[in-house]
Amino acid sequence: MEIQIKKETSATVITITGRFDAVTTPQYEKTMNELITGGDIAFVVDFDGLDYISSAGLRGLLFTAKQLKGKGGQIRFANVKGTVKEVFDISGFGSIFQMDDSVSASLAKVS
Fold this sequence. Notes:
Helix content is 45%, strand content 32%. The protein contains 5 helices and 5 strands; from the N terminus they run E-E-H-E-H-E-H-H-E-H. Helix 2 links the parallel strand 3 and strand 4. Helix 1 packs parallel to helix 2. The relative contact order is 0.19.
């Protein structure tokens, strides 16, 4: 997994590429924890380059959402498609999280 961070005016964009699984989830959680501890509370996670997500990856997303909820933060997902979207739909995550077709659409909806 590769994680890229880009600060935008309304939110921090996290671009995840590769595989989001039990091996890579700790890296994601560490990165997000550092950003949240540093004061970032609005995020757009771009899944455009994500090939695979496991239940461990889903737990990592929940971990972040819980951290943000306690701080009045927000997270939106962009470009959730293919097999990753199927996993979101089967797991019910599609109804838990706000998802958009593009990063720009997500950024426009972050308050």
